[in-house]
What we know:
Number of strands: 4
Strand order of the largest sheet: 1-2
Strand content: under 5%
Distance between the termini: 109 Å
Low-confidence stretches: 1-5
Number of helices: 14
Radius of gyration: 29 Å
Oligomer: single chain
Mean pLDDT: 84
Largest sheet: 2 strands, antiparallel
Amino acid sequence: MDNETSTVFPSYTVHPVPRLVPWLSDFHLSLLLPVAAYWFMSLIFWYIDRKDHFARYRLHTPEEFKQRNRVTAAEVLRSVLLQQAVQTALGLFLGYVTEAGDFRGREEYDIAVWAARIRRASDAIPWVLALVGIDGTTLALQLQTYAASLNVHGGATTTTGKPFQLMTSIISPHLGDGLTYGFTAWEISAAKIAYWVLEPAARFGVAVCFSDSWQYFWHRAMHSNKWLYRNVHAHHHKIYVPYAFGAFYNTLAEAFVLDTIGTTVSLMLSGLTIRQTMCFSTVSVLKGVDDHCGYRLPWDPLQWLGEQDTRFHDVHHQSWGIKSNYSQLYTTFWDHVCGTACDKSEVELAALYEKGRRAAVNAETTATAAGDTNAKGSCGK
Length: 381
């Protein structure tokens, strides 16, 4: 019997996925959750700042925060809230146009499609073996015989022969019984792994790779082009001492290009579902806030993801590091490929950070002395 015609693809009927929150659609939740995550994470670091917890892990002192930043916290707060309102409105519009929503009901069909792909791939194995003079069917039968001899040893059943049985199935996949929709058990098992694990992982991988590439090259362009820097990106660099809720302190133009367009295209290319989008967007926001938090906490899981951590991005916010470390969020791949990663040693970085701390303390002392002098002068009049 022909292997292709013996397979049957199950019929299916799709219906909307039940809501995670009964009174709110998953699409609307995917817009609100990143905003909520932004402020929740920011409030945590605000509390840490106010209580002066974990001071040993600070990258900057409170004096630096007061002396070096060129924008007030209130201005940052208003700007971020406006940006989030505009981005949410654009998200609502795009969702209305694309009729965004998740559906279920075709899982078994999609698994059967993956099983068919796996069968086509495994059908090529005998042809590949034939190129080196090996008959695939004969080898499969030999492995099957050898596996059977290993399965019974001293009258007791053993699993020693299992790997050889699997090899037999792959080399000659249509030997044996146990068919589901015309596919063998191993084909269905492999298809389930592909559908439930490998395919989502690949989608997230595409989203991360595209998003990081988009962010890097646009971010670098905004530093290389004087007009873009002056009119679009310099706004963000009024913050020399980054803090959590200042992560998204950008012009609306920058937010639209880097975040709105970049995220939309990455989601379209990767094909993430609404719920996968929810996870990706929320983690991305948390990572962005964490990269600006000003603390290098050893137990922070978001700083375990690689070299792209709080200190890496903080270097970019310093006057001596502003032409390096353009990568944002997940990887530093393009910085290393393009030679824009900061090449200063740990000793050099420590000296530069210490110099900034001393300068801030001196400026604070000078400002305090000037204030006292002015106060005395006023009293003497």
